[in-house]
């Protein structure tokens, strides 16, 4: 879950009159399509961590395989989500959604049938590329179909659907791993994909295309290969060492390609990463905070669910449900926090929220060989959930509110990509962070790093975020 792409941050409470208004049949179909398409991507993001120990047990590779299963998806997702808007404009949202759904489905089947870890990792990269086009195109369908209060209601329903994936994913994934096979976890997507494609065929939606839309394919390739080279070096370095030409060569090559990507974004006519957005104080500060916070969340989410299975001996179902309090608190409190942030300003919440999450991460240091979920893990999950609820909505509204509304789409895509890439790097560094093995000592190391990253996110927000002037106050003159 990313800041701008959060399934909670965009919730708006419809008025009673709006909620009671009947929705035309065509709008209902469009809404179902948008919810199901996003549900697929969110569901996959929540089930994969639960299946990692079983995957590495069967296909081998240990921690390195687990890192690659996560990061192969995030590399293509993080790089291509930036270009998704341009592709949708050029070829049409409906066509792009169909391609994304079919690609995601084929990749899911390939993962389920993977004979080797290498085959599975490549299929995960394809799945990430397809997933990059699902969430943006689904939200674009909603914003182009609904207007005014109906749009707020539709986004609220979309939020409920995608949040349902966050809750159901770990439970379904854990049950499949424990009772059937980890391979079937990746086939869960096939049913909602088939239903969505059927609804798209029945809806007869008119696709709108912009003939003047420019797609920076070269930028997308440079970004993907650059991130891939850097991540390959970080993941494989503990095994091969920095003295290996493969490691320093791919790291140097990836760094050069990513630098060329950034240079191209300064000169290309239609950049996929408009660097001028980062001249806006709240936007760049919010994205730096996003990098710290969501890097920490990715690290914590992977470490907790894997250690609870491999270290504490919990079955996959219980390990998947361990972080459920975080999701429930996020759902229960985010709307209220969003309202308070609008009244008092986001700076306080963006400072306190990550610091509270940092405290929650450090509570995991109480985990010992005499393991107890209720006394050692649950308190951390509750504190983490409170901190996340304080953070997500103010962070999202601050970043999007810093940019003019007509560019909110690209602002959201950039923030989503920052969150994904931060998680990508954090997972790539996992072996270095835990000392090569996710035992109890490694688990404690990861908890400390998670806490430090969270504290850094809070301090960045404290130093950099500025509360916008209230509507009844004149803007500052300096």
UniProtKB/TrEMBL annotation:
PROSITE patterns membership: MFS
Keyword Membrane belongs to the record: yes
Region (Disordered): 1-21
Membrane topology: Multi-pass membrane protein
Chief place where the protein resides: membrane
Compartments where located: Cell membrane
Annotated TM spans: 29-52, 72-88, 95-115, 121-142, 154-176, 182-201, 213-234, 246-263, 284-308, 314-334, 355-375, 381-405, 417-438, 444-465
Presence of the UniProt keyword Metal-binding in the record: no
Sequence ranges assigned to domain Major facilitator superfamily (MFS) profile in this UniProt record: 30-469
GO molecular function, one term: transmembrane transporter activity
GO cellular component, one term: plasma membrane
One Pfam match: MFS_1
Keyword annotations: Membrane, Transmembrane, Transmembrane helix
Protein name per its UniProtKB record: Antiseptic resistance protein
């Amino acid at each position: 879950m990313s800041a701008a792409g959060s399934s909670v941050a965009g919730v708006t409470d419809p008025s009673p009159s709006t909620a009671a208004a009947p929705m035309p049949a065509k709008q209902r179909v469009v809404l179902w399509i948008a919810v199901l398409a996003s549900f697929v991507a969110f569901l996959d993001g929540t089930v994969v961590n639960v299946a990692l120990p079983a995957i590495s047990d069967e296909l081998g590779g240990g921690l390195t395989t687990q890192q690659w299963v996560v990061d192969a998806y995030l590399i293509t997702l993080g790089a291509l989500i930036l270009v998704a808007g341009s592709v949708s404009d050029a070829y049409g949202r409906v066509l792009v959604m169909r391609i994304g759904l079919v690609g995601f489905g084929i990749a899911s089947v390939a993962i389920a049938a993977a004979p080797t870890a290498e085959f599975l990792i490549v299929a995960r990269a394809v799945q990430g590329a397809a997933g990059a086009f699902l969430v943006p195109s689904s939200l674009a369908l909603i914003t182009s179909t609904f207007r005014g209060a109906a749009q707020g209601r539709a986004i609220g329903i979309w939020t409920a659907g995608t949040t349902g994936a966050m809750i159901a994913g770990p439970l379904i994934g854990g049950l499949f791993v424990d009772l059937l096979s980890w391979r079937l976890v990746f086939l869960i997507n096939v049913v909602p994909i088939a239903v969505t494609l059927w609804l798209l065929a029945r809806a007869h939606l008119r696709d709108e295309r912009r003939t003047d839309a420019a797609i920076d394919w070269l930028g997308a390739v440079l970004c993907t290969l650059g991130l891939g080279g850097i991540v390959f070096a970080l993941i494989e370095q503990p095994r091969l060492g920095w003295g290996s030409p493969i490691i320093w060569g791919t790291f140097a090559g990836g760094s050069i390609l990513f630098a060329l990507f950034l240079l191209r974004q300064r000169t290309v006519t239609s950049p996929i990463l408009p660097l001028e957005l980062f001249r806006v104080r709240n936007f760049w500060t919010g994205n730096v905070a996003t990098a710290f916070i969501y890097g920490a969340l990715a690290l914590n989410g992977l470490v907790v669910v894997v250690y609870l299975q491999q270290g504490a001996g919990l079955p996959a179902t219980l390990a998947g449900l361990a972080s459920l309090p975080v999701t429930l608190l996020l759902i229960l409190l985010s709307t209220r926090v969003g309202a308070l942030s609008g009244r008092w300003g986001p700076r306080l919440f963006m400072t306190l929220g990550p610091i509270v999450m940092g405290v929650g991460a450090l509570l995991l240091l109480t985990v010992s060989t005499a393991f107890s979920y209720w006394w050692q893990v649950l308190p951390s999950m509750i504190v983490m959930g409170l901190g996340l609820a304080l953070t997500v909505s103010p962070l999202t509204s601050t970043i999007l509110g810093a940019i003019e509304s007509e560019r909110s789409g690209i602002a959201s895509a950039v923030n989503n990509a920052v969150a994904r890439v931060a998680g990508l790097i954090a997972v790539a560094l996992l072996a270095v962070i835990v000392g090569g093995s996710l035992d109890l000592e490694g688990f404690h190391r990861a908890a400390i790093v998670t806490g430090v990253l969270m504290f850094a996110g809070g301090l960045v927000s404290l130093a950099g975020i500025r509360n916008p002037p209230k509507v009844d106050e004149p803007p500052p003159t300096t």
